[in-house]
Inverse folding.
């Protein structure tokens, strides 16, 4: 079972002044996997260098310095896959089956579909909006 270690660049202060590399080592000492939630290619490369087991695009478009999109950022996904050795998980704005197919074609190890299946209000709104001409 993966242990989620929230990504935070090395130069950012962590709670209790913990170092990301120390937390990652602790997780690995307990034979757990660590997944980095990243928002940019640079963060993905750094997470891979540090030894994260999985890299996910979870924060792409949600940080003030990452490209905002309403669709999955397939360009980011492709660039990450080309530049890291860890498996890459596509997460964020994955709202259609075609998004999953495209992500897998572009090299994603897996995809996450979240609110499109866990938030019925969003699903209903999409159908309602589709009926408005």
């Amino acid at each position: 079972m993966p242990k989620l270690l929230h990504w935070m660049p090395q130069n950012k202060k962590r709670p209790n002044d913990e170092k990301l590399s120390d937390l990652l080592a602790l997780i690995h000492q307990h034979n757990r996997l660590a997944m980095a939630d990243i928002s940019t290619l640079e963060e993905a490369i750094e997470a891979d260098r540090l030894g994260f087991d999985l890299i996910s695009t979870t924060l792409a478009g949600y940080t003030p310095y990452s490209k905002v999109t309403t669709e999955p950022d397939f360009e980011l996904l492709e660039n990450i896959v080309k530049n890291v050795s860890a498996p890459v998980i596509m997460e964020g704005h994955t709202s259609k089956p075609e998004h999953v197919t495209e992500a897998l074609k572009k090299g994603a190890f897996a995809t996450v579909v979240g609110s499109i299946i866990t938030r019925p209000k969003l699903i209903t709104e999409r159908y309602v909006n589709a009926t408005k001409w």
